Amino acid sequence: MSAIHQNVSTSLSASTSTFLSHNNLKSLRPSHVSVAGRMSAVVKCVATPSAEKTAYKTDVARNENLAKLQAGYLFPEIARRRNAHIAKNPDAKVISLGIGDTTEPIPEVITSAMSKRSEVLSTVSGYSGYGAEQGEQKLRAAIASTYYAGLGIEENDIFVSDGAKSDISRLQVLFGSNVTMAVQDPSYPAYVDSSVILGQTGLFQTDVEKYANIEYMRCTPENGFFPDLSTVRRTDIIFFCSPNNPTGSAASREQLTKLVQFAKENGSIIVYDSAYAMYVSDDSPRSIFEIPGAREVALEVSSFSKYAGFTGVRLGWTAIPKELHYSDGFPVAKDFNRIVCTCFNGASNIAQAGGLACVSPEGIKAMHEVVGFYKENTAIIVDTFNSLGFKVYGGKNAPYVWVHFPGRSSWDVFSEILEKTHVVTTPGSGFGPGGEGFVRVSAFGHRENVLEACRRFKELYK
Amino acid sequence: MSAIHQNVSTSLSASTSTFLSHNNLKSLRPSHVSVAGRMSAVVKCVATPSAEKTAYKTDVARNENLAKLQAGYLFPEIARRRNAHIAKNPDAKVISLGIGDTTEPIPEVITSAMSKRSEVLSTVSGYSGYGAEQGEQKLRAAIASTYYAGLGIEENDIFVSDGAKSDISRLQVLFGSNVTMAVQDPSYPAYVDSSVILGQTGLFQTDVEKYANIEYMRCTPENGFFPDLSTVRRTDIIFFCSPNNPTGSAASREQLTKLVQFAKENGSIIVYDSAYAMYVSDDSPRSIFEIPGAREVALEVSSFSKYAGFTGVRLGWTAIPKELHYSDGFPVAKDFNRIVCTCFNGASNIAQAGGLACVSPEGIKAMHEVVGFYKENTAIIVDTFNSLGFKVYGGKNAPYVWVHFPGRSSWDVFSEILEKTHVVTTPGSGFGPGGEGFVRVSAFGHRENVLEACRRFKELYK
Question: ipTM score here?
Answer without folding.
Answer: 0.89
